[in-house]
Specification:
Shape: elongated
Structural class: mainly alpha
Helix content: over 70%
Number of strands: 0
Number of helices: 7
Strand content: under 5%
Largest sheet: none
């Protein structure tokens, strides 16, 4: 009888441990889903604001924080370049792109001279980011890609630069 009670207690302990692990897994999944929903809403709002600024030069002027004077057409191009960049970051943040896949998207974006101008014009924006932040690290990835492509002898831009492990 004592053996049966001991076995039942062990079974009960194992069941409680299993339920605890299941509850933790559910809570973690719920947290990830909430984070993803918040990021999605933030991305949607950011994109809506950029679209309004691209359509209205008076609103675009609010976002003109470049160190040199640029015209309305260039401002709209920079806003669109920012939208492309933020879109790629968003997909990475929600887990839809691995860091290596994001590197591939960045490599393509770097091919465009307007994007490179935008990136250079916003360099001072990235200097305010904490050095260890994910966005600062991804900014350095883009900087390295642009530099690697500028230094490359080959016209095969799709093989320039290796994604970091970060």
């Amino acid at each position: 009888m004592a053996t049966q009670i001991s076995a039942i207690r062990r079974l009960g302990s194992a069941a409680r441990a299993g339920l605890g692990a299941a509850a933790t897994a559910i809570a973690e999944r719920s947290t990830r889903q909430r984070r993803r929903a918040v990021l999605t809403e933030q991305h949607r709002l950011h994109f809506d604001l950029l679209c309004k600024a691209m359509d209205d030069p008076a609103l675009a002027a609010v976002l003109n924080t470049y160190e040199t004077e640029i015209g309305p057409e260039k401002q709209r191009q920079y806003l669109f370049a920012n939208a492309l960049y933020i879109n790629a970051l968003y997909f990475h943040r929600i887990g839809a792109l691995t860091r290596a896949e994001l590197h591939g998207h960045f490599r393509i974006m770097c091919q465009n001279p307007v994007f490179r101008e935008y990136w250079e014009a916003t360099e001072h924006h990235r200097k305010s980011l904490p050095e260890s932040s994910d966005e600062a690290q991804l900014g350095r990835m883009m900087d390295t890609l642009i530099q690697d492509q500028a230094d490359a002898d080959a016209d095969e831009w799709w093989v320039v630069g290796e994604p970091d492990e970060g």
